[in-house]
Design brief:
6-stranded antiparallel beta sheet; Yope Regulator, Chain: A; 4 helices; two-stranded antiparallel ribbon; alpha+beta
């Protein structure tokens, strides 16, 4: 049995448009203002991010080969960089924290050790580049993030640095110590 209700093409279009408008009105806006009293940091707030980095050790502002902002830091005796990326349209959209260890071919961690690290480490990832081992962590700044979020990411980064140094680098190439 067929339905007795038949809508004209114009009526179906009007209903479709109304549903789309209601859906758009109910969806959260990407440009929502932060709650009162909460200021957000983005890629234009390199000075504020530098202050946060200094809570975890020494840090200074620099720039990369393209003129983008960069931080050079040291936490727990380990050197790292914070490279600001996606800077071609306004404030930089992200930052990548990275550190590397140089060694001869015999002292480089095995691919298996790095694969195990990458499997167990949720936020920080390791790679081999010739005879150097690199640890990296990406942080999105698009749309702004709270100061607490940036502090939390630096805390996580310094924890990853220490863990990677002791569990992969110091424990010896090719061995994994948990």
């Amino acid at each position: 049995m067929k339905s007795a209700l038949r809508l004209s093409r114009a009526a179906r279009r009007a209903i479709s448009a109304a549903v789309l408008l209601l859906g758009a009105a109910a969806a959260p806006s990407r440009a929502e203002a932060p709650p009162a009293g909460l200021s957000l940091l983005d890629g234009s707030d390199v000075g504020s991010i530098l202050e946060i980095a200094r809570q975890f050790g020494s840090a200074e502002r620099s720039q990369d080969y393209a003129g983008n902002p960069m931080l050079r830091g040291r936490a727990g005796g380990l050197f790292y960089l914070v490279v600001f990326q996606d800077c071609y349209r306004g404030p930089c959209g992200s930052m990548q924290m990275r550190s590397s260890w140089l060694g001869d071919r015999e002292s480089v961690p095995s691919p298996e050790a790095l694969a195990t690290w990458n499997l167990l480490s949720r936020f920080c990832k390791a790679s081999l580049f010739g005879s150097s081992t690199m640890l990296m962590m990406d942080v999105s700044l698009t749309g702004g993030v709270s100061r607490r979020n940036v502090e939390s990411n630096f805390d996580l980064w310094t924890s990853c640095l220490k863990s990677f140094e002791t569990q992969v680098i110091v424990s010896g190439a090719g061995t994994w110590r948990i």
